[in-house]
Amino acid sequence: MRQGPLSMPEDLRHCAALLDALPDPALLVGQARRILMANPSANELFGAQVTGQSVMSYLRQPEATAALEKGFAVLDGAPPPATPVEARMIQAAPTRETVLRVSVAPVAASIGLPLLLITLRDISHLEQAEQQRRDFVANVSHELRSPLTVLAGFIETLKGPARNDPEATASFLDIMEREAQRMTRLVSDLLSLSRVESEERVRPRGQVSLSEVLRATLAALRPQIEEAGVVVDFADLPEAPAIPGDRDQLVQVFHNLVENALKYGGSGGRVQIALQRLDAVPGMAGPVLRVEVRDFGDGIDPIHIPRLTERFYRVDGHRSRSMGGTGLGLAIVKHIVNRHRGRFTIRSTRGEGSTFSVTLPLA
Ligand SMILES: Nc1ncnc2c1ncn2[C@@H]1O[C@H](COP(=O)(O)OP(=O)(O)O)[C@@H](O)[C@H]1O
Ligand SMILES: [Mg+2]
Q: Backbone phi, then psi, for 324, in 5-degree steps?
């Protein structure tokens, strides 16, 4: 039982039981702004010694203080506000910052004592999701704006100064075509990302041969392989059994991984692709198939690796854009692998190259 003032009325003991049942941190504050009670979550947040202290010393930020003042005004006889009194407060902790929504509510006078119930809800994840949504919209707008600016500029030029210059016209049209293709790629990657995100919980229903998927992917990439002058070595496993999967999505996965190996790791001159069967891997039940795509290029600095699967994250934005990249490929890969209940890992050593590995359950 909590240590409260000795004169705690019987009713307040019932309040204590209710307070303890609340999942969010909650404080009961009485006259003289003292904390009469704190539930275990509030003790976790503010420490064990809050009872008896002034609530003002725990809720010190201006917005929270203003909300408390409104609550105290009600205790002093002001009419209760029409809407709940709420405030946003940031609680700094050693490991992370928590954003709290503080709500201040006067307790019905029938309890016989003027009391305020203060609850604090952790809204950090809500704010974070909201921030991600804003960043995403800003990124998409930014990615679309640069090709649009180029197109608009060349349209002006073609209508004006270059009107009667067939040579300039031809070269401008080439540039305009490239920029239009860039926008098309971006929009189609955005659509595929939104499709795979919305299907992530729907199990794929097809039966897919990874060996066939890899051969088809390499055949489709033949022109890029030749252009990059890279030797691609494929250690196939033709007898590998089919896995439950979505063939088109798996083609998308390996297309992007091999294309990345050529674009960003092609300086190593070779790319190795290997399909293996493993009977057991940590963290996955039952036998699996694993595909590794390895390049011998510059490698990736460890600080970037955990972020590569974020939407629009690139190590070198300029380089990616100049190679026609959208920055969405690995985000799409991650979602497709998740949908297949698989694992996606990236290993890399600076100066030696990178290995992108996809592990998929056999059943
Ligand atoms: N094999 C690789 N070697 C080095 N960096 C890579 C490799 N694959 C991907 N990256 C880095 O990861 C970023 C994200 O890849 P991805 O999501 O496919 O986007 P994009 O290919 O459109 O740039 C790339 O811009 C690149 O910086
Ligand atoms: Mg890519």
A: 85, 15
The 97-106 sheet, strands edge to edge: 35-38, 26-29, 116-122, 97-106, 85-92
Closest atom of ligand 1 to 328 CA is 17
Give burial (CB, 10 Å; 0-12/13-18/19+) of 110. exposed
- Quote the pLDDT of residue 6: 43
| E-assigned strand segments in 33-178 | 35-38, 85-92, 97-106, 116-122
Closest-CA residue, ligand 1 atom 21, reads: 325
> Distance, CA 128 to ligand 2 centroid (Å)?
26
240: nearest Cα among 211, 274, 278: 211
81 vs 67: CA distance, rounded Å: 11
Q: Which domains does the chain have, with CATH numbers?
A: 10-122 (3.30.450.20), 125-199 (1.10.287.130), 203-363 (3.30.565.10)
Which regions of the chain are under pLDDT 50?
Answer: 1-6
Q: How far apart are CA 279 and CA 285, in angstroms?
A: 9
CA of 280 to the centre of ligand 1 (A): 29
d(CA 195, CA 201): 11
Measured from CB, residues less than 6 Å from any atom of ligand 1 are 256, 260-261, 264-265, 295, 297, 300, 308, 314-316, 320, 325-330, 354
How far apart, in whole angstroms, are the C-alpha atoms of residue 28 and residue 35? Answer: 6
Structure tokens at 316: 């070198």
Give 16 Cα–ligand 2 centroid separation in angstroms: 57
Taking the centre of ligand 1 as the mean of its atom positions, its distance from the CA of residue 32, in whole angstroms, is 60
pTM, two decimal places: 0.80
Nearest-CA residue for ligand 1 atom 24 is 314
Instruction: Confirm if 84 and 108 have CB atoms less than 8 A apart.
Output: no
What is the gyration radius of the CA atoms in the chain, in angstroms? 30
Whole-number pLDDT of residue 9: 64
How does pLDDT run across 183-197, given as a tens digit for each residue?
999 999 999 999 999
- Name the closest-CA residue to atom 5, ligand 1: 264
